[in-house]
Write a structure and sequence with these properties.
Elements (H helix, E strand, L loop, with lengths): L1 E4 L7 H13 L3 E4 L7 H8 L4 E4 L6 H5 L6 E4 L9 H7 L2 E3 L6 H16 L2 H9 L16 E5 L3 H12 L3 E5 L5 H5 L3 E2 L2 H7 L2 E4 L13 H4 L7 E4 L8 H9 L5 E4 L20 E3 L8 H19 L9
Parallel strand pairs: 1-2, 1-3, 3-4, 4-5, 6-7, 6-9, 7-8, 9-10, 10-11, 11-12
Helix pairs in contact: 1-12, 5-7
């Protein structure tokens, strides 16, 4: 089979060669591109003749998919697949596998980096120190003893809960299904409105679906405590950014940490959150650690090998 990696996987070439060697030794052709593009015609050209393609978060539209008549499998080097036209894949019988679990630790750790940055005013403290300032006006809040509300108790949400327990946080959770492991950890499941109204810190760990798009809107932000903060390392479109910016500007909530947006960075210079106070923004970097990228690459190639053996894993169809 012809297997094409459409973009770099952020690992060194030696590791990539070792991973692809398993495919080559089985008689498969492996081609990779070391540049990233979202240009439709270039992607069609790169994927020409491929039965399997590998990509991360490049938008892979129905038009591109249908221009690749031999395509049978997509191995996605990402957790979410909302950038892929899943309907087109279903119509064609194309198997889509994601890289489940590769970034659990990295996303959970940045979640707490954002929590601490917002609550202890780390960015402002850094600026003040460099400008010869003092702690005046920079007194923050402890997280110990606060209530952490976790929206979504998948692998990342549960890892956030584990870290939260170590910080001495009380944990509330809202999720489509309750997990016994979460309950055994001491997490209390509640409805979303209760979580928002009782949590000091609300952190989002759900996929982007028709049900979660715009989940955190004006009405739901209004239910949050005045001194609370919102953290989003999930998907940008889960939160109404304009509503969040208004709540911050009007001091209806105390702060926010945001790693994901309605579009991929770079963001436009007039993005609504740039003018909001006490918000820490990072450029969709939560998943991006060297360790996570190496785990991701291994999962991506394992997905292909298992699919070829008739034992597919991480199937998203």
């Amino acid at each position: 089979m012809r297997i094409v990696l459409l973009e770099p996987l952020a690992i060194d070439e030696e590791k990539l060669n070792l991973l692809s060697l398993k495919l080559k030794n089985k008689g498969h052709e492996f081609i990779y591109y070391n540049t990233r593009t979202e240009e439709k015609n270039e992607l069609i050209k790169r994927a020409a003749g491929a039965q399997v393609v590998i990509l991360s978060n490049i938008p892979f539209t129905g038009e591109i998919i249908n221009a690749c008549p031999e395509l049978k499998m997509i191995s996605v080097a990402f957790t979410g697949v909302d950038h892929i036209d899943m309907q087109a894949c279903r119509q064609r019988g194309i198997v889509v596998c994601n890289a489940a679990g590769y970034s659990t630790h990295s996303v959970a750790e940045l979640t707490f980096g954002l929590i601490l940055s917002v609550m202890r005013k780390v960015i402002e403290c850094n600026a003040a120190t460099r400008a010869g300032g003092t702690k005046n006006g920079l007194i923050g809040n402890e997280i110990f003893g606060k209530t952490l509300g976790i929206v979504g108790t998948g692998a990342i949400g549960l890892r956030v809960a584990e870290i939260g327990k170590a910080f001495g946080l009380k944990i509330l959770a809202y999720s489509r299904s309750q997990k016994e492991s979460a309950i055994n950890m001491g997490i209390s499941y509640v409805d979303l409105d209760t979580l928002l109204s009782e949590s000091d810190i609300v952190t989002l760990h759900v996929p982007l679906t028709a049900e979660t798009k715009g989940m955190i809107n004006e009405e739901r932000i209004a239910k949050m405590k005045p001194g609370s903060i919102l953290i989003n390392t999930a998907r940008g479109s889960i939160v109404d950014s304009a509503a969040l910016a208004r709540a911050l500007c009007e001091h209806r909530i105390a702060g926010a940490g945001v790693d994901v947006f309605e579009m991929e960075p770079p963001l436009p210079k007039d993005h609504v959150l740039f003018s909001a106070p006490n918000v820490v923004l990072t450029p969709h970097v939560a998943f991006a650690t060297r360790e996570a990228f190496e785990r991701r690459a291994k999962i991506v190639f394992d997905n292909i090998l298992l699919w070829l053996e008739g034992r597919p894993q991480n199937v998203m169809n």
